[in-house]
Amino acid sequence: MFGRKQLDEMELDIRSRSMVVSYRFTELILAAWIVICVVMKRSCVLPAYVLISQLVVRGVSAIIYKRQVGDDRWKRALIAIIMVLLVAALIMMVGVGKAV
């Protein structure tokens, strides 16, 4: 009686497109928040952490899905994620050093 109904292709497409739009909107707002904080010379640690963690979760989930379906490009994506994390960590360390 209270079970979930099966979604047809159109409903799934609409749902996935709306999720992509909301995700991009969140990225845009967080990036704007970071830019405004940098311009005003204020601390932007919280939005930076949220944006970086959101991008890492998206990247890791894409790697997992690619590996599950047998796509060999997941290794290249893993290297890219590691490089982005290293650069983000370096930027955060430099930013924390300036704040102290």
Which terms summarize this structure?
3 helices, mainly alpha, 100 residues
Order of helices and strands: HHH
Number of strands: 0
If you compute it from the alpha carbons, what radius of gyration comes out, rounded to the nearest whole angstrom? 18 Å
What's the overall average pLDDT, rounded? 79
Q: Could you say how many structural domains there are in total?
A: 1
Please report which band the strand proportion falls in: under 5%, 5-15%, 15-25%, 25-35%, 35-45% or over 45%: under 5%
| Tally of individual helices | 3
Quaternary: single chain
Which runs of at least 5 residues are low in confidence (pLDDT < 50)? Answer: none
- Main sheet summary: none
The end-to-end distance, rounded to whole angstroms, is 59 Å
Quickly give the structural class: mainly alpha
Overall 3D geometry? flat
Give the helix proportion (percent range): over 70%
What does this structure look like?
There is one protein chain. This protein has 100 residues and is mainly α. The protein is 81% helix and 0% strand. The chain has 3 helices and no strands. Helix 1 (9-39) runs antiparallel to helix 2 and helix 2 (45-68) packs antiparallel against helix 3 (74-99). The longest helix is centred in the first third of the chain and has 31 residues, at 9-39. It is flat.
